[in-house]
Design a protein that fits this description.
Layout lengths: L14 H8 L3 E6 L5 E2 L14 E6 L2 E10 L13 E8 L4 E6 L12 E8 L5 E7 L5
Antiparallel strand pairs: 1-2, 1-3, 4-5, 4-7, 5-6, 7-8
Length: 138
C-alpha cells in the first residue's frame, strides 16, 4: 500500500489502541479504580489519579458533537480529499474523539447526527478510524 499522509507515532502507551484498530476494534483505557474511560491514552487517570487501567472495547457509536468542513489550507497529502469534514464525536460511552467523517456530503452533517466507526487500512501495519453516518453502510 502506498500511503502518503502523516503516520502517527505509536508508543508503548498507545500500542494497544493501534492494535485494536488493526483488529477492527475501537479500544480505550478504562480506569481500574473509578471505571472512567479516557481518550487520549494517559499514564494517570485524570479523574482519580490512579495509574491502574485496562483496555476496553467500545461500541464506536456516537453523535457528532462538533465539526468543521475543511476547504483548503492543507498540505499536499490532503489536497485530493478537499473538501473534507473533521468531527468531534461523543461516543455513547462518554469520551469524545476526533476524526474524519466519510460517506457523507459536507452539507449534510449536523450536530447530533448519529455516526459509527469505520476502519481504514492505511498500510499493512496501520489501521485508522473514521466515522460515517450510522445508517450509511447498512
Amino acid at each position: 500500500m502506498n500511503y502518503s499522509k502523516p503516520i502517527p507515532e505509536i508508543t508503548l502507551l498507545t500500542e494497544p489502541f493501534w492494535e485494536g484498530l488493526r483488529s477492527k476494534e475501537l479500544r480505550m483505557q478504562a480506569c481500574s479504580q473509578c471505571s472512567v474511560l479516557r481518550f487520549i491514552p494517559k499514564e494517570v487517570c485524570p479523574d482519580c489519579s490512579s495509574v491502574d487501567y485496562v483496555w476496553q472495547q467500545v461500541s464506536g457509536l456516537g453523535m457528532v458533537y462538533s465539526y468543521t468542513t475543511i476547504h483548503g489550507g492543507v498540505g499536499p497529502a490532503f489536497r485530493d480529499d478537499l473538501p473534507f469534514v473533521t468531527v468531534i464525536v461523543e461516543l455513547d460511552e462518554g469520551p469524545r474523539v476526533m476524526s474524519h467523517l466519510i460517506n457523507c456530503l459536507p452539507d449534510a452533517v449536523e450536530i447530533g447526527m448519529r455516526v459509527s466507526v469505520v476502519f481504514e487500512d492505511a498500510t499493512e501495519e496501520l489501521t485508522l478510524y473514521k466515522f460515517e453516518p450510522h445508517d450509511a453502510g447498512r
